[in-house]
Amino acid sequence: MNSAIPSPTDAASATGALPRAAVLLPLPLAGAYDYALAGAEPQRGLVVRAPLGKREMLGVVWGAAEGGVAEAKLRIAAPMPHHRVLPASLCDFVDWVARYTLAPPGAVLAQALRVPAAFDEEIFRPAFGRGAGTPDRLTPARTRVLALMDDGLVRTASDIAEQTSVTPSVVRGLADSGALVSSPLPEFSPLPLPDGAFDNVTLSSDQFRAAEHLREAVKSHEFSAHLLDGVTGSGKTEAYFEAVAEAIAGGGQVLILLPEIALTVQFLERFAARFGCRPAEWHSDLTQRARKQVYRAVMSGEARVVAGARSALFLPFQDLRLIVVDEEHEHAYKQEEGVIYHARDMAVVRARLEHCPIILASATPSLETYMNAKSGRYDWLRLDYRHGVAEMPRVELVDMRKDSEPGRYLSQALRGALQHVLESGEQALLFLNRRGYAPLTLCAACGHKETCKNCSAWLVEHRFRGRLVCHHCGFETPTPVHCSQCAAEQSLTACGPGVERVEEEFRAAFPNARVAVASSDTFSGPNETQAAIRAMSKGEIDVLIGTQIVAKGHHFPQLTLAGVVDADLGGGAGDPRAAERSFQLLHQVSGRSGRADKPGLVLLQTRNPEDPVMRALVAGTRDAFLEDQIVTRERSQTPPFGRLAALILSGTEGDAVRETGRLLAASAPKARGVTVWGPAPAFYQMLRGRTRERLLVQSGRNIDIQSYVRSWLADVKIPSSVHLAIDIDPVSFF
Ligand code: ADP
Ligand code: ZN
User: Within a domain: residue 2?
Assistant: First the structure.
């Protein structure tokens, strides 16, 4: 730490004259703690360094001191350099999220204080510019340096040495003579400024109408929510880019949320083509240095557009004028660990607190958003046609009860369509939402299923790597030769398909086709996935086989066939959103086909051709499907007609977890309109070596389910060996 900054101390005698304040620390504590504040007036949002026990950490002045701490016990917190303050709207947002999710406010604050180094004193890089002095003698090396520096630019010593092939001592010598003068550079170069007029397309009249509307919303500086509801390829992105341009032109900042990092790269390039430079990016793969740069630039207002994952929602924007949530229906927006929140819902809250518009873009809006649009709470902008001459693809079902052979996963119909695509030099996508070779490995002798030692889940064979892998905890083991139960040799049999197996079958059928697999595996990694997607874009491969990573966002003009290997996957027992989710995913996959001038075909392989999801996909009746879902949800009083909260208990001591579950259920307060289900073992009873039990609270729409859960838990003592996670509005049910 910089020595000029008063360091927090324990000198109790010194606190008497100091103002007191409640300081929130980024820890899962019950609330803020009182401190004496040295060197600053208490102001909500003021970032301070505060002692806690033997540690010292960042904290934020949250409000007036509670009182009650004896003078002698009061410790001293001190502001950070330049007295940086988190925007009030961000502090309010933290409080809001904490109240809603029932997470400790400090745990939510931790989301907003991800980069403590961003509050440190500015670091300067030593650098030099051309000075007026003349060196006593000129060597060839010195001459080269001066020739370079005569352009008047400032460079670091190492840059100069590198560009002129001299040793650092040459630079030092020139500095001593005054021919170069020290001119420190800031730690980070300035971010490029997106240019709204860099390269805009001519919008169609529909797109123009939507864009105009969104521009007006940005200009109004008021909260408003807009569902940008357009079929895949209709130009939703182009339309909302106009609103982004408007916000930038007005001098403000924009946040664009994207559901997955893997999609970010393509998006950044597309943004750059439209605005002349990439936006700042924010996600978990950034280096510490990049994080610090972006965090600071957001805080100072320098970063005008941030594209990022859900955690970008907690950045300290100075002047936020627009939030965009792309693919708003995506379940990846739900944060399932730590503070459990839905980034789309919280984005609406943040927009409200920032008094700015929010755009929710999707071709398959979530039921919640669809209903908000229908009821008029959200503004509803529709783009019903694909851009240009592109038409929506034709969707057909392949009944796998009739058209399949044992051990084969590609039907005659799909093979025929693939053959046709290959002959006409077009491209195809084969989609299967299962990584690896086979989802289940069974012993043919004794029927034993190979399961993970840490999780109650099957091990998935990854034949290419010769391993069985747990997709939950990452446990892996070489594929055994003997059954681990009965020791039979060579008896292990792969059951069902994963993408690797589809690839194998495809290669056998079409040995001359060029094919690549893109899977969201951690081991094949985002680079390999990106490489496959790039190869597809460039036409270097004919067929891309992939998991849901390939389903979204991509635009391959030559792609005219999307084959869904198993359209029946995607159910989920007890999950009220299973049908909706399945529809969204299959619709997204379908949307990859026929995006340019050639008509597209989609083949869905299914054993349930009568399923409402299949029927809606074939008929293209999305709204009718959603209306049908509305009826089902209303009948079952599930969201948005009722409210849900899940309580998930977990721990390494199974008995303690189960016992706590029983106690918790027994102590649930009786309340009208509230039902508590469970405890029941979670779908995966064991995950990462921890036993899991679930309770589900279901209530009417008008009941404050948070208050109910809060007052319930206030009276229950959870043993320290058991962890309790609260999931308000759960979207996954395992
Ligand atoms: P969506 O976000 O609805 O899927 P996109 O904005 O990605 O649609 O548009 C699909 C494709 O059509 C993109 O390649 C996009 O650049 C192109 N496109 C959309 N609208 C226009 C337009 N008005 N002029 C030129 N190209 C457009
Ligand atoms: Zn496991």
Answer: no
